[in-house]
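Continuing the series of single-chain predictions for the mutant panel. This is the parent chain; the variants come on the following pages.
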Amino acid sequence: MASISILLPNLVGGGVERIRLVLAHEFVRAGHDVEFVLMQAKGPLLEEARASFPVVDLATPRARALPFSLARYLRRRRPDVLLAAIWPLTVIAPIAQRLSRHHCKVLVSEHGILSGQYRDWGIFHCLLLRISTAVGYRLADRRIGVSVGVGDDMASLALLRRNAVDVIYNPVPPRRVPEPVAIDMADRLWSGPGGARIVTVGTMKAVKNHPLLLRAFARLHRSDARLMFVGDGIGREALLSLAHELDVADRVIFAGFRPDPTPFYKTADLFVLSSDYEGFGNVIVEAMACGTPVVSTDCPSGPGEILARGKYGRLVPVGDVAALADALSQSLNDTFDPEILQTRAGEFSSVEAANAYLRLMSKV
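Parent structure:
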């Protein structure tokens, strides 16, 4: 039995935080002890974490102070494994382990394409990214990307051999069947009949390119079509303004953040991901698990891998409004076999992902 500490900035409710909670439950079921270590103990998933796991608040809002507060934690708690996600935590964690002089296994994982995510942050930031990953990744015992593309990006940034980075797909556990009241609530929110309900799920930020989806939706020649955004973020007001500009505001629904979006997948006719890039794309698997067909941009790097280059859903070029609009129209008219989609989704199980992490821990 090992003691595993999971390091995160917070539990604000994004995909990475949910993934870590899923893995934590699987680690416990496998007989290990798990503790969450947060730079700041905040976020909508905090109480859920506290209900099942010890949660340590480092009360460290700035990354530059994290090496020292994390080192103090490691000296005090002495875990067997430190599992860190999200740069710069992935480069700080191995340094803090050295500062603490406590020998534990350090596994770091990235969940996005860092070179794309920080491309427009300026030369200094890009140089910092390259130098820090070159140092921090080498100090870690294992480096993990959540898709082949993420692994390639990590190796390229840090000037590592490609086989120095492992790939473990994100875990997407089966969700409980929604209660009838939850399905009814989602149905009412759609405010329109079934047949042309399009849903997207995710934080409203630039990389998701929700304006692209809005513009493609506006090209649909279907008055019964509805587009629902499940998620929230700083881009909400701009999207609302664009919906009015495109004269589709009366057919666009902003559902806000939902801890469990399953009722919205279940009541939708099509799920769409319009991102410029993705580390993996958990929401695609979640939609398929509900038997909901998928259209996605063929962005680096997860969607193409999940959809097997188009076998399980349509892929369109990044940023192409016309192609996305055509894919929406065609997919709404197609017939899909939900069981085929659900079987594919089952290949990304939480048990398999957790076992893959545990196998890497045992090899260190």
